[in-house]
Design a protein that fits this description.
alpha/beta, eleven-stranded mixed beta sheet, Ferritin, 3 domains, 14% strand, 43% helix, two-stranded antiparallel sheet, 19 helices, 544 residues, Rossmann fold
């Protein structure tokens, strides 16, 4: 009950912040998501600091006003307290607290004080909380939020409205919650800001079914609590849904996250996701930049290799402006199967997923695993780059299997998808699953999507992990069998053709044979009649 109550209160806070933005003309504005996510993050960091301080200092814990107790500390005492806190707790000064801003709200130029406070928190915590770009610049935690209000006479009132809302309740009791709580809150927080905007590399929100299936197959239950000190990577990370699921399966303190994504918005959302999920230690590995053109994570001149890779890359878009920059000797090994050509009439249909997939294959550690969402056509295409990629996976025996998902599993795109599982340790049979007939159709806005039930998700996971064979659903095949079928990875190609047998008596057999004989006689008779008719028509034509 406490969890549901706090979840509801947290959602109410998010809704009220959106209401404030709407009242000041920022509803559906391009900058609204920055205000909502950054104010939420400020509140989260403030209350996390209080939570940790109370755990460490009994006097602070027992004080009715913990902020006053902290304010009375000397600089040395405060520094000692902060040193005892974990790295995932932001370093705050008494002047950074929400209660302090609340007490100062009637001062003139309050908006400047509000902005200066957030910027000072960002600068103080830059080493841990800043996201880097592939060019080396740092994207700090907070912007000057009041400056998004065009009418500067309304900025003070806007910032007062925010502070008055933040003071109303504390997040402190949510810090003992588990992954699912934060996943729900994060999804609610960003639900209006993480849809496909139609722009280049626009992010798609990966459905929970896809994220869960990938995580449960990459890290089966038997390996939970065993896997440790591993690296997890996503070269097109978006807001981090796939990585959060895998990190949770492994254990947040047992893995390090590495990402790259061209979108600054996605990188900021991913940073927030890492903070919510006790993965602050991985924020320095979050890079905003073009993975295909400028892969950031390297060991010397070579691509860095990872234990686990997950990705839902963009499928098709126009990358003609840098396509030729990729076609060089330096990228020969990385793009071993080739680089898609520029399409004369449909540049936006260039298959960029093929580049991401090749990059991923080259980024797997020996013995590593990957799960990648690919368009369904990838599994059986017989020309171009796709079959060359499949051939490498089969010939080098590094394929775990493929799950072909139901149509419309993504509400934002009608493209049918499959999940490709790579496993450098799998030298035995490969699992192919056709889950296309599972799920139920539901309307989501103007779009229709397919939703899998928890039982259907588990059916896929169990069939894959146990290598079950089930008629018209799952099959296991050898690498040699795949090679003989032109490297096709479609499960349907390998399903047995079923012939139904029926037991009948000798008398029934005789009747059936008599029917066959009569049918054959009739067919012969019809063919003779047709032949005579054709001959007569030919004779008539000659006489004419």
């Amino acid at each position: 009950m406490v969890e549901l109550e706090f979840q509801q209160k947290t959602k109410e806070l998010i809704d009220s912040l959106k209401g404030i933005c709407a009242n000041y003309g920022l509803g559906n504005d391009g900058n609204e998501f920055k205000i909502i996510t950054q104010v939420f993050l400020y509140k989260f960091l403030n209350d996390k600091f209080a939570f940790e301080a109370k755990k460490l200092d009994e006097k602070i814990a027992n004080s009715e006003k913990w902020e006053e107790e902290l304010t009375s500390m000397t600089e040395d005492e405060l520094e000692m307290l902060q040193l005892q806190m974990g790295a995932d707790t932001a370093r705050l000064k008494p002047a950074h607290f929400i209660s302090y801003l609340f007490s100062q709200q009637n001062k003139s130029d309050f908006a400047k004080l509000f902005d200066d406070t957030l910027r000072d928190i960002a600068i103080t915590n830059n080493d841990v909380f800043a996201v880097k770009t592939d060019g080396g610049a740092k994207v700090v935690l907070f912007d000057r939020l009041s400056e998004y209000i065009a009418d500067d006479s309304k900025r003070d009132a806007f910032c007062r409205a925010i502070i008055n809302k933040l003071i109303e309740f504390s997040f402190e009791r949510i810090f003992t919650q588990k992954f699912d709580f934060y996943a729900t809150i994060f999804e609610y927080l960003i639900k209006d800001y993480n849809s496909n905007s139609g722009g280049k590399y626009a992010e798609y929100f990966t459905p929970h079914a896809v994220a869960r299936i990938m995580a449960e197959i990459l890290v089966p239950q038997a390996q939970r609590g065993v896997v440790k000190n591993v690296s997890c990577y996503d070269p097109s990370a978006g807001s981090g849904t796939l990585l959060m699921n895998v990190a949770h399966a492994i254990g947040e303190n047992r893995c390090s996250i590495y990402t790259q994504d061209i979108s600054q918005k996605s990188s900021n959302l991913l940073r927030l996701n890492l903070i919510l999920n006790n993965l602050v230690h991985s924020i320095p590995n979050v890079i905003q930049g073009n993975t295909v053109l400028h892969p950031y994570h390297k060991d010397g001149n070579e691509l860095k290799r990872f234990d686990y890779i997950v990705s839902n890359p963009p499928f098709k878009l126009d990358f003609s402006d840098f396509r030729d920059d990729l076609d060089n000797k330096e990228n020969e090994d990385r793009f071993f199967a080739g680089i898609p050509k520029i399409k004369a009439k449909a540049k936006d249909k260039m298959e960029i997923y093929q580049l991401f997939l090749q990059h991923i294959i080259c980024s797997i550690k020996p013995g590593g695993k990957a799960a990648v969402v690919v368009p369904a056509g990838f599994v059986s295409a017989q020309t171009g780059i796709d079959p060359k990629i499949r051939k490498k996976l089969v010939d080098e025996k590094m394929l775990a299997g493929v799950v072909s998902m139901p149509s419309n599993i993504f509400a934002t795109t009608g493209t049918n998808v499959s999940i490709l599982f790579i496993d450098d340790n799998n030298k035995g049979d490969v699992v192919l699953i056709d889950a296309s007939n599972l799920g139920r159709k539901v309307k989501e806005g103007k779009n229709q999507k397919t939703v899998l039930s928890p039982e259907e998700e588990q059916r896929i996971i169990d069939a894959f992990n146990h290598k079950d064979v089930e008629d018209d659903f799952s099959v296991t095949v050898s690498y040699d069998e795949i090679a003989k079928k032109n490297y096709s990875l479609g499960a349907g190609k390998y399903f047995d053709i079923k012939i139904e047998y029926e037991d009948i008596t000798p008398k029934q057999f005789a009747i059936k044979m008599d029917e066959f004989s009569k049918n054959l006689d009739n067919l012969f008779s019809d063919s003779h009649n047709l032949e005579r008719e054709i001959q007569n028509q030919l004779m008539n034509l000659k006489h004419e």
